[in-house]
Design a protein that fits this description.
Blueprint lengths: L4 E3 L12 E3 L2 E8 L4 E11 L2 E10 L9 E5 L3 E10 L8 H36 L11 H50 L3 E10 L3 E11 L2 E11 L6 E11 L5 E9 L28 H23 L7 E5 L4 E5 L3 E3 L6 E10 L1 E7 L7 E8 L9 E7 L2 E8 L7 E9 L2 E7 L6 E4 L2 E14 L5 E8 L9 E6 L4 E3 L4 E8 L4 E13 L8
Helix pairs in contact: 1-2
Length: 528
């Protein structure tokens, strides 16, 4: 469909001289940016000859008036558009509010039924108690007396237990009712907000059918990327599920709309910043008593204001998603319709599923932790249009933890920790026979030896990298000498030792290393 006439001018005062024609409109498409959303509405009406005013009511109170755009199709001319807040219009309860109200009524009814049941049980108890007296004229056998006693004891016990269960139901349903009522109060507060009206001034030579497409930006909306990373085993690629948590509290529900998720940020200006002259001069100190203290105390509120401003500014159906890469951003077009009520919990939308090639390696630092950690090193993720976000990690069908995916901080390989594997048993022990302390002249020498043993109890061969370290001297009088690195790679800047091992199933390997620390006699070395 071609949209012919586009309004570019805001005319705030034109509504006074024209009769208003209320027109219903429907949200058809929502383009959700990271921190706001663009709403697109469709409206149809029949225009009379001459000038008239088309009014769209019940819109979001948070819409940006400067972002309103109106396009029309038909034999008419758009003269201008206007916007104002409406504090008088009554809004129909949202679908979410109706659902909450239905839930509240259900709990109220359940509580009333429990109270009624308790009254019935109390009356039955009174009836039994009032008829338990036995007159002397009654000739009852021992068996009959025993039967009566058993009946009283059994039935009164059943009544007490039933009353206790009803009390528990009342407490449970009262707590649930209170939670639902809190949500109702929150939604009611949202419902009581004012709305917006958009007024479109048009002119037609004769009566004509008119189709309008209205778009505007709203705040209180956006989407947060998140991921699921799944590895079936150490020989399979990593399954990456790209998801979006779409949220909005714009004051209008998005019912069965087409969603477009965009990585663009419309709040950022599109103009290149201009450099100002950079001047240098000698600093002229000015002595003011208390100045430094005052500046220091004022810095915290200023920094807090800047932080608050920054926070405010930043405030599986993947087969139905089409990724559109533009020059400046990426858009994901969701083919299936979605509903996102205002003020509800974020709606999860599947964006894409990818298989990422990965190699698997076990990493261990037994000095700090005796466990081996399985790492997946994924490559080729750069082409997936990923954004920073939280990721859930699954290995062999089990949830193992969370991590952060930040493409800006990763180079060519994305390292994913899949958690501890208890099937790789690691022990680090001090070798006492080679750990000595002796004095030679004016020097004290301490030798240390460590042995690390690894046993692979898994049914598969593994690739294991073990990390340990030698101390690093920060004083010229303290000398650290590596006596035996045990075949480890050594980083003399960081002091890190690295062993690269391959272990077959049920295989055990051992590595060891020794070093010596020399320092002046009579001194104590911190860190040993």
């Amino acid at each position: 469909m071609k949209l012919f006439l586009i309004a570019l001018v805001m005319l705030p005062g034109f509504a006074l001289s024209q009769s208003a024609r209320p027109v219903d409109s429907k949200i058809t498409t929502v383009t959700v940016f990271l921190n706001r959303a663009q709403i697109t509405r469709q409206a149809q009406t029949t225009l009379p000859a001459g000038k008239s005013l088309v009014v769209l009511s019940g819109l979001s109170p948070d819409l940006d008036p400067q972002s309103i755009s109106v396009a029309g199709k038909g034999r008419f001319l758009i003269l201008g558009i206007g916007h104002h807040l409406n504090f008088l219009a009554e809004r129909a309860p949202s679908k979410l509010l109706k659902t909450l109200q239905d839930s509240a009524r259900w709990y109220e009814r359940a509580i009333a039924q429990s109270n009624t049941q308790k009254e019935i049980l109390s009356k039955e108890e009174q009836l039994i108690v009032s008829n338990q007296k036995i007159n002397g004229n009654q000739n009852l056998t021992v068996a009959e007396l025993k039967a009566m006693a058993d009946f009283f004891r059994s039935r009164l016990g059943e009544i007490a237990n039933s009353r206790l269960k009803e009390d528990e139901r009342i407490v449970r349903n009262t707590e649930r009712l209170a939670r639902v009522q809190n949500q109702i109060n929150e939604q009611t507060a949202l419902q009581q907000r004012n709305t917006s009206d958009i007024e479109i001034s048009v002119s037609a030579d004769a009566a004509a059918d008119a189709n309008f497409e209205i778009s505007y930006l709203v705040n209180q909306a956006g989407w947060i990327p998140s991921y699921d990373l799944r590895a079936i085993n150490t020989s399979s690629p990593v399954q990456l599920q790209y998801k979006a948590n779409v949220f909005q509290s714009s004051g209008e529900d998005w019912n069965a709309v087409k969603l477009i998720l965009s990585t663009a940020n419309p709040s950022q200006g599109g103009l290149k910043p201009e450099l100002s002259p950079w001047y240098l001069d000698f600093y002229q100190p000015v002595v003011v008593r208390g100045y430094a203290m005052e500046m220091k105390s004022a810095a915290a509120p200023m920094a807090q204001r800047e932080a608050d401003k920054t926070a405010e500014d930043e405030s599986s159906l993947s087969q139905f998603v089409t990724a559109v890469q533009t020059t400046l951003n990426t858009q994901f077009e969701i083919a299936l319709a979605y509903s996102v009520p205002s003020g509800s919990k974020p709606t999860q939308v599947d964006i894409a599923r990818h298989e990422v090639k990965a190699s698997y390696v076990y990493m261990a630092a037994p000095k700090l932790d005796p466990n081996a950690f399985l790492m997946a090193k994924a490559v080729g993720w750069e082409e997936l249009n990923l954004l920073p976000g939280e990721a859930n990690i699954y290995f062999e069908g089990t949830f193992v933890g969370k991590t952060m995916v930040d493409p800006s901080a990763v180079k060519d390989t994305l390292a994913i920790s899949l958690g501890r594997d208890k099937r790789v048993v690691i022990q680090r022990e001090k070798v006492k026979d080679f750990s000595t302390r002796r004095t030679l002249g004016t020097s004290q020498r301490e030798s240390y030896a460590w042995e690390i043993s690894v046993r692979n109890t898994s049914p598969n061969a593994i690739h294991l990298i073990i990390e340990d370290q030698l101390p690093i001297s920060q004083n010229s009088q303290i000398e650290v000498t590596a006596l035996d690195l045990g075949g480890a790679g050594y980083d003399n800047i960081q002091g890190k030792l690295t062993w690269d091992l391959k272990l077959a199933p049920a295989e055990t390997k051992k590595v060891s290393y020794r070093y010596e620390v020399k320092y002046p006699k009579g001194r104590q070395v911190g860190g040993l």
